Protein: TetR family transcriptional regulator
Organism: Streptomyces mimosae
Amino acid sequence: MDKTGTAGKRDGRAERTRRTRERIVAAARELFVERGYGATSLREVADRAGVAVQTVYFVFGNKRALYKDVVDTSIAGDAEPVATMDRPWFREACAAPTAAGQLRLHARGTGAVLARVAPITPMMAAAAATDPEIAAQWPEGPDPRLTVQRAAAEALVGKPGARPGLTVEAAADVLFGLLSPELYLLFVRDRGWSQERWEEWAVDALTAQLTAQPVA
């Protein structure tokens, strides 16, 4: 067989492995949200994903590793090892020439993240409270979400249209609070808001708090 054929087979196996991994992660996410992390077995994940339980063990090794993959891919939106602050949507928002333009892009991008992350937030808290090894997967330190919002605040302060005298700390606190998973769940899950309605509210609230002129 020539090298082209060998490479094609290798690429085909890699693609099948990727699709299998994605099915397992999607199944685990559904079950962890529905039943909780502790109440979900890997056999149940395998059944939901349509694979053998041995496949789950082969790909992930154990349930804690699978849990971490569920969380990481929910935050990122894919399995690529790219930090939020290096994501195109975040860089585009920070590069916006005006404060109002950055806030609109930032709310849109953060809303997409929250749509994936907010539903698993209660499950994450419960898992960390009952399994010390789960909690240890994310060492103590600054909240990663606050780190991201602080970086956005640093880009915002001083732009045309930003509120005079606005500090990075004050802007980061507002972004951190108004764009929280808890507030997102309150509106979208509990009050039945659409994603679009939440985004418009977030833009209005951020604009009123962080720009020189409140939104009309």
Summary: The radius of gyration is 20 Å. The chain has a mean pLDDT of 88. The CA atoms of residues 75 and 113 lie 6 Å apart.
